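Hey, I'm writing a tutorial for new members on how sequence and structure tokens pair up, and I'd like a real worked example in the thread rather than a made-up one. If someone can provide the structure for the chain below, I'll link this post from the tutorial.
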Amino acid sequence: MKDGVYMEKFFTSVTLNKELCKGCINCIKRCPTQAIRVRNGKAVIKKEFCIDCGECIRVCPYHAKEATYDKVDIMKDYDYIVALPAPSLYAQFNNLDDINILLTALIKMGFDDVFEVGSAAELVSEVSRSYIKEHKEKWPIINTACPSVVRLIQVRFPNLIDHLLPLAAPVEIAAKMARDQAIKETGLASERIGLFFISPCPAKVTAVKSPTGMLKSEVDAVLAIKDVYPILLPLMKESMDNMQDLRTIGRIGISWGGSGGEASGLLIDNYLAADGIENVIRVLEDLEDEKLQNLEFIELNACSGGCVGGVLTVENPYAAKVKLKRLRKYMPVANNHMEEREYDELYWTKEVEYQPVFKIGNDLKDSFTKMAQIEELYEKFPKLDCGSCGAPTCKALAEDIVRNEAKEKDCIHILREYIHKITDELIEIDKEIDNR
């Protein structure tokens, strides 16, 4: 296998604006998969390592990291459009006491209909409860609603793939149900109907453009919450006097917007919920080392606070969680149920496989040889992990050198020693010349 063979296999929604990049090392120190390097004074994103968590977007002081998503004007490309609002959208607004105000505003914005993703989330919760009971041999089962977590497991924790919950994400289920409903009501061809997911994060954009567990996404476009937010604010004021009853979710559905919401919808006590990419990695490491025993379910969210902490949102994630709690106070537990015969429609249709992007060699012998080279190089470095070389750690620099992507003298400490050596040699030569 050649290095970089996976470059074309994955779409990544996090991109770099080179004109804004100043070559600082904030991003390389924050990236959880060491997917970023600084080369020739500019950051470079190694796509095969990127999990689209958006942490580089969050920490870049120059706003050089950007998320790829669709713009609002794409709405005009379809004859009939349906909004698929994520539960995290409801938590972005102050003094919202009835989500029908928000849903009505979406209609005023130009959507012909609204299908809440939280409705499908309640169905996923119901099917998940059955799956967990029937597959004790796979405990603890890991949620798959966060695309960054699934991608992280694919590239760093292959032994845990079998623990993944093999269910489609709520947005995919919502999109399929919304499309079927729209075709039935309008008689339009499927391609003339646009299903628009209003997303809190770039990872969900990637999940639509390059889906996991299925061949093709049902979603036609992904809008950012931060783009829709300013449009909805004035429309919500108008909606208060002419509000439609569009809400279809209960407590379980809306709770998916924050960390712990999915797990609480399973109605079990024996679970663990962690949010924030560093915490997620720690949990996965402990799980791989078999330190976490007797758990039925593990909910992991790459963003702090859960989906409300996505980089495409506008509200503080912890304030947003409080707002979700207030909104669900007078809701029923759930509004959506399904028949047993429909369960199969929610499962993955494509196997999720290990992606060995961190593999060094082409075969076992080559890998051992290159690992030995990496260790030899690593011992030469000061082990300060300063990032001045453009790599996040000294070990990462050693790996880059073996991959022919960097040089030893990229390390300023090695370069300084080299310069001192050359200087001393020049001084000696100068002395010999003077003595002649």
